């Protein structure tokens, strides 16, 4: 009896759910088939603001991409004041000029990047002589070599939030996000009204005199900084801004130099409905020749989440995000395409007849259809009910997975670049979502893509991974799907004709995948505990993996432990091996390098690997000052040696913490080491407060430079976990 009741409830719930999705009386019935909600292949260019406005009103999700009103708008006629260069505050012991300090190092490290020849912006840069760093709201230039004479050369205040730099010879670019109040005049209005606007600035400095940088250009536009690269002397950066439109007006991207218009970019789009539209504006300029005009183009598309740049192209990727009306129509189509074909023939014929009756409105149709379903249900015996529900659930599950594979896709746009020129090429689509920029790689004119697909279909969770190959026009050339079912990608690294990929659920399968042809194939696989969040090439036969240890817990699941650094031997691609492992800390130990590859320093010739670490040590101890138990935390950099023959060896550790901070380690501490670099035989570690120099041979401290960091002391970590009384029990 209980089983029969369960079946009845399941069937009725399905009918009620479908009924609820039927348009109500007076509502506009959506007639666009689900199949038409696909992105058009042809890129188009808007010819006017009115054309943009008309497109948005027609295609945006109801209310989700629009912002109506007049007062407080950020568009219309702008009346900005010029962004003058902030005054320079020189330190007392600043050097007179760069030439007075002697030559730089013979060899020095550079930012760890994905693609050789394509520099990535970071908050620390060096040129073998000077270290350029963002400390709080200041650009600090440090004469770092030789280490014994290290000292601050200049400090430049930068208003706003800045953490990205490029340095090229005697020129520097700092990217800054600022919230600004911008007066504007609405269309056909007369009174300037204040509007709050987020803007991204690319500040170009002449640093030929390191003690006195001079602001040359202030390129700025509405939005937030998304990503930037530098190839040769050309800087490419992308700003992202939500589309704001109103009853009679739409704000469009405008690139300014200070307060003057520098570029009015063309705006391109694709005829596909989106729940939210965004302007993704790509800008380029010559870092060494400010007289060369900048270029910019804007693309109205979904919310970009991943940017990959090769030497020849920029790839902007985002997840498809259908407007709400897609899902309204989806439920109706699912009913007619999946449920109705499973019904007995008399019920099926009756429902199809009602569906085709043009004299009935939506409510009247559903009233009659629900009566047919009730009669059908009442005529079934219990066995037929169970069989029907089982077949219905199976069909819905399969249908939803198929539909998810169609709609849960990543859209990738390709923009060719050449000495600052920008030219849109094509777009492509692949199933699933990207993990990060390392999910994309261009090789010999083809784009290789690694994705994870997941779907909740009825009561089942479907998850798998795939590799796709797209040709130069972004058409699908080959694929390998359904790798490691029920797991997701944790890291990938494309190197030449191979892909190294780590997935994880309970163990870490390390895959070696052949990409020499258009159809990828798995060459070998290694299973071991833990996982790697970042993969880095050592040489042609070895790969470094940085991630976490794992272990089975008492509940039968898997718990994450400390950091694990592994060296994989891939000389025999059919049988990859774990050649060496180095472990750091206990559960909760972490490293910025797991999420940001620019925090990872490696040099094979020097047998040098440096990792910033926040290490959990030992058991929690009672701290009477705060009245709870806290874990002992060490913050600093692990300096390791690495060879295939000897594996990992600890050369030393460097910490910037002192006093109480050294014992407990504050979460988000300005003394936490975040980057490391070297000049000749000196290792430099960088935190928000200090730059420390240590000899690579003996790890002895050679110098400490205190940076002008200003900020409040953060809260201690971890937060209270147990009281003294509970711990005592």
What can you tell me about this protein's structure?
By secondary structure, the protein is of the alpha+beta class. The protein has a domain at 2-30 and 329-405. The strands form 9 sheets. The protein has a 7-stranded mixed sheet, with no helix packed on it. The longest helix is centred in the middle third of the chain and has 26 residues, at 382-407. The two termini are 49 Å apart.
Cα-to-Cα separation, first versus last residue: 49 Å
Shape: globular
**In angstroms, what is the radius of gyration?**
30 Å
Q: Could you tell me the number of beta strands?
A: 43
Q: Bin the strand percentage.
A: 35-45%
Helix segment tally: 8
Strand count, sense and barrel status of the largest sheet are: 7 strands, mixed
Name the strands of the widest sheet in spatial order.
1-17-19-18-14-13-4
Q: pLDDT under 50 segments (min length 5)?
A: 1-10, 18-38, 62-101, 713-729
Task: Give a summary of the structure in a few sentences.
The chain has 729 residues and is α+β, with helices and mostly antiparallel strands. The strands form nine sheets. It has a seven-stranded mixed beta sheet with strand order 1-17-19-18-14-13-4, with no helix packed on it. Strands 2, 9, 10, 11, 12, 15 and 16 form a seven-stranded antiparallel beta sheet that branches. It has a five-stranded antiparallel beta sheet with strand order 3-8-7-6-5, with no helix packed on it. It is globular and about 90 Å long.
